């Protein structure tokens, strides 16, 4: 059994073995009771030490994934009983909220459809330095709550950075949040009533759809074009509906990689003003964008603007922010205080440090350059292999593309053969409709497994006789 251990990865080897074995069991639906190869065999085949393999198996026993007999041989454990908490009638059952952006959970496969940078792309030196600085010099950063708007030193830096996008945001119009996710949640809680309807992009960001469903908000689907939301389709929607808000992911859109053009932005804003519709601009991929710089919030101070540092610096620090008019910021800040007591002051202080000393600016420059090179290479391969690409992205993480072999199940089988994990065929549609388009994460796409898959999809195409 090949476990595909990456010795350069930051993930410890034992954890990789755990992930690979779990993935094998889930992906291949391995029957309970199936016996694993012996520890010695697994270790020898994968050039691992027996103690690492043994430790991984013991962890899986502790997690209930494996069972052990006579202390040395391991079997796939029977599935746990569901143990629903509703026996006493107190905990109502809910349909699952999340559909997930990836097609399955195979731990060892290349996450071609992933939504973020791989860990091996992340850089820890400057981050480690900033963490040590805060630990040594900032006792409040280490131990205290933050303020309700967020750390002033961070908001000062954010205000400066936003100027580069022509967004004028005084510090007291900026609210820090626990990632963009909390920003979106606060906006939905405070600006939208259950039962109201909003316009969302299709394809678009799955977690936004799940959040809106959670709050009982109806969604109207607006097709995304390579230049932004489809303005004609919006006009048609507005002729028959009265949506309270429009959500737009302006730059390096998830999942299509496309960015908003100035013409589309101006027409969207004119329609929003005419119909009294709130505009929420989600710009979490902003720092991956090189040249094109159209932002709704730069054109209209009433736009609610959301940013984040998850995609570039760290998804673990959980720092995002909102820019909005003063009354909205006041309400968001109140609810943030009540529901979370604020963002981690430690994370805010670390980020403020990296913004102030220029390390963050240099980090995103390096990331843009590397992504730009990989983007060009992948687009070339896709073109040669006859894939259809949805507009050529000018930056960012994603390409939205359709293989010449237009049957998702066949493409999925092919991907599995090459050890590649695809994006889900339904997650990016607000209504969960099936799609043959795939989100391709450029940071994974130069891996030989992905390149072989792109080319393989062209070869597997049914021949026209
Ligand atoms: C469009 C979009 N908005 C928001 C988020 C959430 O970002 P954060 O990690 O800052 O909560 C993501 C993450 O994938 C995203 O793609």
From TrEMBL:
Pfam families: Aminotran_1_2, GntR. InterPro entries: Aminotransferase_I/II_large, HTH_trans_reg/aminotransferase, PyrdxlP-dep_Trfase, PyrdxlP-dep_Trfase_major, Tscrpt_reg_HTH_GntR, WH-like_DNA-bd_sf, WH_DNA-bd_sf. Keywords: DNA-binding, Pyridoxal phosphate, Transcription, Transcription regulation. The keyword Hydrolase does not apply. Residues 11-79 form the HTH gntR-type domain. PROSITE patterns: HTH_GNTR. Gene3D superfamilies: Type I PLP-dependent aspartate aminotransferase-like (Major domain) (3.40.640.10), Winged helix-like DNA-binding domain superfamily/Winged helix DNA-binding domain (1.10.10.10). The keyword Transcription applies. It comes from the Bacteria. GO terms for molecular function: DNA binding; DNA-binding transcription factor activity; pyridoxal phosphate binding. In the C-terminal section; belongs to the class-I pyridoxal-phosphate-dependent aminotransferase family. This is GntR family transcriptional regulator. It comes from Pseudomonas chlororaphis. The lineage of its organism: Bacteria, Pseudomonadati, Pseudomonadota, Gammaproteobacteria, Pseudomonadales.
């Amino acid at each position: 059994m090949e476990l595909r251990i990456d010795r350069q990865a930051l993930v410890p080897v034992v954890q990789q073995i755990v992930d690979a074995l779990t993935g094998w069991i889930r992906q291949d639906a391995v029957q309970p009771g199936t016996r694993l190869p012996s520890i010695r065999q697994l270790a020898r085949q994968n050039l691992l030490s027996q103690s690492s393999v043994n430790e991984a198996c013991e962890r899986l026993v502790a997690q209930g994934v494996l069972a052990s007999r006579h202390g040395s041989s391991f079997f796939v454990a029977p599935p746990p009983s569901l143990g629903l908490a509703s026996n006493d009638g107190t905990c109502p059952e809910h349909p699952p909220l999340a559909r997930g952006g990836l097609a399955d959970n195979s731990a060892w496969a290349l996450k071609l459809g992933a939504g973020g940078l791989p860990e091996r792309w992340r850089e820890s030196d400057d981050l480690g330095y900033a963490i040590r600085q805060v630990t040594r010099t900032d006792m409040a950063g280490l131990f205290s709550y933050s303020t309700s708007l967020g750390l002033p030193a961070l908001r000062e830096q954010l205000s400066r950075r936003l100027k580069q996008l022509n967004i004028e945001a005084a510090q007291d119009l900026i609210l820090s949040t626990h990632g963009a996710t909390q920003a979106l949640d606060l906006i939905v809680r405070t600006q939208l009533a259950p039962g109201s309807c909003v316009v969302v992009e299709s394809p678009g960001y799955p977690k936004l759809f799940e959040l809106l469903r959670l709050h009982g908000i109806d969604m109207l689907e607006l097709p995304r074009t390579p230049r932004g939301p489809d303005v004609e389709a919006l006009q048609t929607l507005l002729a028959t509906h009265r949506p309270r808000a429009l959500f737009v992911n302006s730059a390096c859109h998830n999942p299509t990689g496309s960015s908003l053009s100035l013409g589309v932005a101006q027409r969207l804003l004119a329609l929003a003003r005419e119909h009294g519709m709130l505009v929420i601009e989600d710009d979490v991929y902003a720092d991956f964008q090189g040249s094109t710089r159209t932002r709704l919030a730069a054109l209209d101070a009433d736009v609610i603007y959301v940013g984040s540092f998850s995609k570039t610096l760290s998804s673990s620090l959980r720092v995002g922010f909102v820019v909005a008019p003063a009354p909205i910021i006041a309400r968001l800040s109140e609810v943030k205080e009540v529901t979370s007591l604020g963002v981690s002051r430690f994370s805010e202080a670390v980020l403020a440090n990296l913004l102030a000393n220029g390390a963050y600016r240099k980090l995103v420059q390096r990331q843009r350059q590397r992504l730009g090179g990989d983007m060009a290479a992948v687009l070339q391969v896709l073109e040669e292999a006859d894939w259809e690409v949805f507009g050529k992205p000018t930056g960012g993480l994603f390409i939205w593309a359709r293989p010449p072999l237009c049957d998702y199940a066949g493409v999925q089988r092919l991907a599995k053969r090459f050890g590649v994990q695809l994006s889900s065929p339904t997650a990016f549609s607000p209504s969960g409709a099936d799609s043959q388009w795939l989100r391709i994460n450029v940071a994974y796409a130069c891996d030989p497994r992905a390149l072989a898959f792109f080319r393989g999809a062209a070869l597997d195409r049914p021949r026209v006789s």
